[in-house]
Amino acid sequence: TPALDKLLNRLSAAKSFAFDLETTSINAMSAEMVGISLSPAPGEAYYIPVGHVGWGQVEQLPVKQVIDQLRAPLEDASLAKLAHNGKYDMTVLAEYGVTVNNLSFDTMVAAYLLSEKSLGLKALAFNKLGIEMTPITALIGSGAKQISMSLVEVNRAADYACADADITGQLTELLKTELHQRGLWQLFSEVEMPLVPVLIHMERNGVALDTDLLRQMSHRLGEQLLKLEAEIYNNAGHQFNINSPQQLSSVLFQELKLPSARKT
Q1: CA distances from residue 100 to 39, 172, 245 in whole angstroms, order as listed
Q2: Strand order in 80-83's β-sheet?
Q3: Which of 73, 118, 217, 253 could covalently link to 11 via disulfide, CB atoms 3.0 to 4.6 Å apart?
Q4: In angstroms, rounded to a whole number, what is the distance separating the alpha carbons of residues 260 and 115?
Q5: 42-76, pLDDT tens digit by residue?
Q6: What is the CATH number of the domain that holds 242?
Q7: Same domain? 239 vs 148
């Protein structure tokens, strides 16, 4: 569509852009995309709805079409990406066949390194920028009455999602300065950020386990434990519950007369 083509040109012209997904679940591996927001500059953000359902929703582009067209800027390694908890968004996109390249800044990771008390985007926006953002519960509710983001009206979701992407971009510059000032930039840029795609790969593919070896180790350790228990009972002269601190203390200090450590 002309509007989407215009947005793609805007993203390609920018040196970086912040992005954020709205989905149906906090579980990235099973979440379905409801929409994506993108912010190429402070105060400028766009929302593309793809999965809002229910009566009265506006017409939306097919998720496949949107994914296919956004693939180029998202996978373009020359375009820096900004996100808050980017590992989640990148995992969701990976399930749609998109590999996000060059995630250069994650505001949640930065906040963690800076020892912020709260790592949530809303709390950071308030504490760092003095901006009070709309909480997600204002859209989907909470508890037994909570609804899926897919049931939220597109216009309300758009305002919420665009604010998320915009604030992520605004926080980036502020937190980047703090990281440099506190001597944490090298750790952030050379260790923490390169680790994000590694963790995504591990979580999506799992870790191979040699179950036969683990079974053998368990059997071997079990035999060693039985042998140690027998030696303990032999030294004590009778059996007792080794896992009981009271019985163990009685055997060690009353029966065997071992010297007790001074209490502090």
Answers
A1: 16, 18, 53
A2: 44-49, 33-41, 16-23, 80-83, 103-106
A3: 73
A4: 41
A5: 999 999 999 999 888 889 999 999 999 999 999 99
A6: 1.20.1060.10
A7: no
